[in-house]
User: Which sequence fits this backbone?
């Protein structure tokens, strides 16, 4: 699997590549367990391989591809990777939105975005809250909405506890999750 889906223009370190590969394995496992079509599974994996493609790029390259990205510069790699992928011919807006907003959330996501957001956070190489994250990763195929909401709650909670600003895409994503789960 070593780098098999990375675009030639990717800028990733060996540890970043290992992370992307773990995210790809998790997403592929979910696709298999959920019996999604080969076409949909390929979309999930395309987003995975693109999501951190410019994570280790120079700040000048990130600025060139995503000059108006919301949030701090550390979040610019998703919008930059999406912009570069689009410039290179990627036309699937679900994939582009998944990559663009994978660090912050996005209310307009289809399943590709929700899979990437969750798999990126739940991949087994991360060292914090391993048991909790492993449990969520195991439950994802059976209950994606609840797992996505649990991941978002933890990520938003971390931002709040850290006194970091919540940017509009994150607020909109969170609101879409809790509004859709409220009984009407």
Assistant:
């Amino acid at each position: 699997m070593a780098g098999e889906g990375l675009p030639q223009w990717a800028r990733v370190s060996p540890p970043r590549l290992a992370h992307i590969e773990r995210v790809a394995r998790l997403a592929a496992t979910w696709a298999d367990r959920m019996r999604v079509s080969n076409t949909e599974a390929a979309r999930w994996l395309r987003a995975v391989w693109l999501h951190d493609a410019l994570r280790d790029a120079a700040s000048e390259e990130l600025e060139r591809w995503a000059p108006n990205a919301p949030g701090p510069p550390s979040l610019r790699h998703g919008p930059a990777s999406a912009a570069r992928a689009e410039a290179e011919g990627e036309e699937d807006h679900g994939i582009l939105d998944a990559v663009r907003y994978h660090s912050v959330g996005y209310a307009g996501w289809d399943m590709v975005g929700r899979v990437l957001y969750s798999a990126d956070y739940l991949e087994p190489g991360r060292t914090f809250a391993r048991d909790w994250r492993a449990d969520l990763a195991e439950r994802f195929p059976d209950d994606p909405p609840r797992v996505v909401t649990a991941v978002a709650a933890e990520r938003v909670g971390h931002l709040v506890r850290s006194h970091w600003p919540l940017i509009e895409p994150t607020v909109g994503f969170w609101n879409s999750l809790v509004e859709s789960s409220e009984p009407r």
In short: The chain has a mean pLDDT of 93.
